[in-house]
Amino acid sequence: MKAVKKLVAGLGLTVALGLGATAAQASEGGCGTYKTVDGKEAHLACETAPVDLTNKASIQRGASLFMSYCAGCHSAQYVRYSKMYKDLDIPKELVEKYLMLTTDQVGDHINAGVDPELQKAWFGAQPPDLSLETRLRGNDWVYTYLLAFYEDPSRPWGANNIVLPNVAMPFVLHDMQMNTSKEEYRRNIGDIVNFMAWMAEPQAHQRKVYGFWVILFLLALLIPVYLLNKEFWKDVK
Ligand code: HEC
């Protein structure tokens, strides 16, 4: 019985550690600071990104928006177009026709195809590769950042950002914001971040599914192992 108790305690600890790590990640860092009207510095809380890796429709919409609005400047060097149509169930023809804006080879990675030095000269900063961005900054940070652009005539591109003050990235979603309802605009940005979260860790959802079955298998295995253990030791004592 002692062995069983130990095993159960061990499993409990593993689950607790896992949950603890997720909570710690979520609360890490804020989303910047801003000045209130009376000149005080206030802390901007991150908005919660609607990331759901089981929602394929949202990730597909995000992929399409990402290719139209972001891939012209940002690369995503760890993602191949072929992975997009295989994993996201997007027909190959549609990927080739609508999503492959930067190349004509499905085995290629998403690559802005613009000389980084030129980009640096244009924007003052190089648009970073976004393959792992949500892992680097967190889903909520990226979501809040994309929502935090505002018009600011003093900036070269006429826009600024609360999360990254004096940002070098233009407000590329400005037209979308003008032409959609508030809900639709937030949903679109949520879809982009959902796609970025998938891109940063395409195996994340699958891994959780496997994990569930593995734990279930181990728990089921516990019963015969426990009975066997009892059987082996019954004559010894
Ligand atoms: C016109 C070029 C351009 C387009 C289009 C563009 N970006 Fe950017 N982006 C930049 C530049 C330049 C920076 C660097 C900003 C800086 O360091 O000040 C940047 C920075 C970022 C960052 C912050 C990186 C970090 O961790 O500091 C994120 C996130 C980002 N972009 C996401 C996006 C997304 C999502 C889209 C599509 C909706 C997009 N960008 C479209 C030029 C662009």
UniProtKB/TrEMBL annotation:
Residues in Cytochrome c domain copies: 57-200
PROSITE patterns: CYTC
Any Gene Ontology CC annotation: membrane
Alphabetized SUPFAM superfamilies for the sequence: Cytochrome c
Keyword entries, A-Z: Heme, Iron, Membrane, Metal-binding, Signal, Transmembrane, Transmembrane helix
Membrane spanning stretches: 210-228
Cofactor dependency: heme c
Subcellular location: Membrane
Keyword Protease annotated: no
Signal sequence, start to end: 1-26
Keyword Transmembrane: yes
Lineage: superkingdom: Bacteria
Co-factor binding comment: Binds 1 heme c group covalently per subunit.
Annotated heme c binding sites: 70, 73-74, 169
GO function terms (MF aspect): electron transfer activity; heme binding; metal ion binding
Protein name: Cytochrome c1
Organism: Moraxella tetraodonis
